[in-house]
């Protein structure tokens, strides 16, 4: 090795030792006589000092060094004088007096400072990702990610899981997104699909008798890069045989708690994780991924307003809709402009309008609709809402789904505005009992709400014939701070049930055979009951560490436009390559990308 010690490990007990370090110049300070260099390697920073009288040569080299030069330093560790001790640095009690200094490699001036975490334009960070990754924050993230993955590997290995790699060049394994395709040179006109997840393969491994499988699996989904998504991302993919959903959830929960308690500085709000049925989550939080760091639950006041004089409320209830509201503490003094903005937000989320009662702190009550109500009716609403002075009560009257979604959106908006989304807390929960299907109005067919291998609840199997929309799936989602961090299910292991699902989602027998014939066939060779889950590693690490997006925990992420700015991918290819692949590019019309 070119070094005997890491910079960050030097302590007072090393005083007097002759050591060699190698690393990058974090900063260099010329104090007229002495030159100080903070030398940095992965382990941290140590101060090097050169003295022109004692070691003129080393001093001369230090004089040439600039930020990010790669240096090797031979020297002696000495204690810093008391008044020079830096308590904020692990190595702050010592310094290394350089006897020999070698420039292993000079460096151009980097486009941004490496030594501090000042915000830098993200496009610049992406272009110079190798420099961005040199910064402390990214090193911390990437190293934590490694530790998380190692924990997972150990945890599962100790519980009898086998890590098995599955192919990247495969056939479409759909999870509801577009496939990335790879043209075959050897089979003209044919394509591999990159797996959207190893779903089929892990199920086939259960057929193959491995009983407990996992993989740190890369998944590829060609989706419009809405929100915080990446075209390729990493899942902990796992599958177990002879289990019920409780078993998969219990194992995952134990692992999640271990990860949160072991790797996050945040406080875990509750364990065991609360469980909500999909209906419950929608009714109480207006979303199937509730953020439980705060309350502000949706309250149904339909019963109270069913007969009231405000037509919008009473007619909605009469027509099978609901009137629901949330109580927003501390916003009872909202003025006209703020209320208009809220109404606008509600409309953007799908509401026709927003009704409100403002209980000003000084005792005044304002509302555009209470004039249509009796005093008792208004009072009953306030009681139902548990409204207090200073509160703003907001209401949506609509179909249950719309009222829930709109209020769910506003709830989160207020969570943010009122600082209720405590960044120091992690609140996990399970959402279960999802509907098996969602109705696809455009295509006039059922879409699986999870994926097409999810088993119905056993007692709901008859509903597949009579009322598919009412059938629930054996699906479970793990949600952390309002972010879906893992989804899974117990799978269908019978060919007849699987065929029925294919039928309901509009795959005819021929198509189903062509796409999933291998699965159907496998199911006839003794398939054990099985199920699994796939927590997203990127999201999980992001949440554990408190980063705002997954790009901060991926070494080489892509932009929102699915581009790699460092290497310049995607890029045109040599026409000869295209020819070999039997491909002709017919046009370069850019698809519409929605952000
Ligand atoms: N394949 C599923 C997904 O990617 C996870 C699972 O069902 O295990 O969401």
Write the layout of secondary structure elements.
Layout: E1 18-31, E2 34-41, E3 44-50, H1 56-64, E4 70-79, E5 94-105, H2 122-127, H3 129-132, H4 136-158, E6 162-163, E7 181-183, E8 191-193, H5 199-207, E9 212-220, E10 232-241, H6 245-263, E11 267-268, E12 275-277, H7 278-285, E13 299-300, H8 302-305, H9 311-318, E14 322-328, H10 336-348, E15 355-359, E16 365-366, H11 375-385, E17 392-398, H12 400-417, E18 425-426, E19 428-432, E20 437-440, E21 445-448, H13 463-466, E22 475-480, E23 483-490, H14 495-504, H15 509-522, E24 530-535, H16 537-545, H17 575-580
Parallel strand pairs: 3-5, 6-9, 11-18, 12-19
Antiparallel strand pairs: 1-2, 1-4, 2-3, 4-5, 7-8, 9-10, 10-24, 13-14, 14-17, 15-16, 15-17, 19-22, 20-21, 22-23, 23-24
Bound molecules: aspartic acid (ASP).
Ends apart, CA distance between termini: 48 Å
- What is the percent of helical residues? 25-40%
Structural class comes to alpha+beta
Beta content comes to: 15-25%
Bound molecules: aspartic acid
């Amino acid at each position: 090795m070119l070094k005997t010690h890491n910079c960050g490990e030097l302590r007072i007990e090393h005083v007097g030792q002759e050591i060699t370090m190698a690393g990058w110049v974090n900063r260099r300070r010329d104090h007229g006589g002495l030159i100080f260099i903070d030398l940095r390697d992965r382990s941290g920073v140590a101060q090097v000092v050169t003295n022109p009288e004692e070691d003129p040569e080393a001093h001369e080299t230090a004089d040439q060094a600039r930020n990010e030069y790669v240096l090797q330093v031979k020297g002696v560790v000495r204690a810093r004088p008391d008044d020079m001790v830096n308590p904020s640095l692990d190595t702050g009690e010592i310094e290394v007096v350089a006897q020999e200094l070698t420039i292993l490699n000079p460096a151009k001036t980097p486009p941004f400072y490496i030594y501090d975490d000042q915000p830098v334009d993200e496009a610049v960070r992406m272009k110079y990702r190798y420099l961005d990754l040199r910064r402390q924050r990214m090193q911390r993230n990437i190293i934590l990610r490694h530790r998380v993955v190692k924990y997972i590997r150990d945890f599962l290995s100790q519980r009898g899981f086998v890590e098995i790699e599955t192919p990247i060049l495969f056939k479409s394994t759909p999870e509801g997104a577009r496939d990335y395709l790879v043209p075959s040179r050897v089979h003209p006109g044919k394509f591999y699909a990159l797996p959207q997840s190893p779903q089929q393969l892990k199920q086939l491994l259960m057929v193959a008798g491995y009983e407990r499988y996992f993989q740190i699996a890369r998944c590829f989904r060609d989706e419009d890069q809405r929100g915080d998504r990446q075209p390729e991302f990493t899942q902990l993919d796992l599958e177990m045989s002879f289990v019920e959903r409780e078993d998969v959830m219990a194992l995952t929960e134990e692992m999640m708690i271990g990860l949160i308690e072991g790797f996050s500085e945040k406080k875990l709000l509750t364990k065991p994780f609360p469980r909500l049925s999909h209906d419950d989550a929608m009714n109480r939080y207006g979303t199937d991924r509730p953020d439980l760091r705060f309350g502000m639950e949706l309250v149904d006041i339909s019963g109270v307003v069913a007969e009231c004089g405000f037509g919008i409320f009473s007619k909605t209830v009469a027509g099978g809709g609901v009137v629901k509201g949330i109580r927003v503490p501390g916003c009872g003094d909202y003025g006209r402009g703020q209320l208009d903005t809220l109404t606008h937000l509600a409309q953007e989320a799908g509401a026709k309008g927003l009704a409100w009662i403002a209980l000003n702190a000084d005792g005044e009550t304002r509302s555009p609709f209470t004039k249509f109500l009796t005093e008792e009716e208004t009072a009953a609403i306030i009681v139902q809402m548990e409204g207090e002075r200073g509160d703003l009560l907001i209401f949506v009257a609509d179909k249950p789904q719309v009222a829930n979604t709109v209020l769910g959106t506003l709830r989160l908006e207020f969570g943010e505005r009122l600082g209720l989304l405590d960044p120091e807390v992690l609140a996990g929960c399970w959402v279960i009992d999802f509907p098996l299907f969602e109705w696809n109005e455009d295509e006039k067919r059922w879409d699986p709400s999870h994926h097409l291998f999810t088993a119905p609840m056993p007692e709901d199997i008859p509903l597949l014939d009579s009322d598919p929309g009412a059938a629930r799936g054996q699906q479970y989602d793990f949600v952390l701070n309002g972010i879906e961090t893992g989804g899974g299910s117990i799978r269908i292991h019978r060919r007849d049930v699987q065929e029925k699902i294919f039928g309901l989602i509009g795959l005819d027998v021929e198509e189903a055979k062509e796409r999933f014939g291998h699965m159907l066939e496998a199911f006839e060779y003794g398939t054990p009951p099985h199920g699994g889950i796939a927590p997203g590693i990127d999201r999980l690490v992001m949440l554990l560490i408190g980063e705002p997006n997954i790009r901060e925990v991926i070494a080489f992420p892509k932009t929102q436009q699915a581009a790699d700015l460092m290497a310049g991918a995607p890029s045109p290819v040599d026409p000869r390559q295209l020819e070999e692949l039997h491909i002709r590019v017919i046009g370069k019309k850019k698809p519409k990308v929605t952000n």
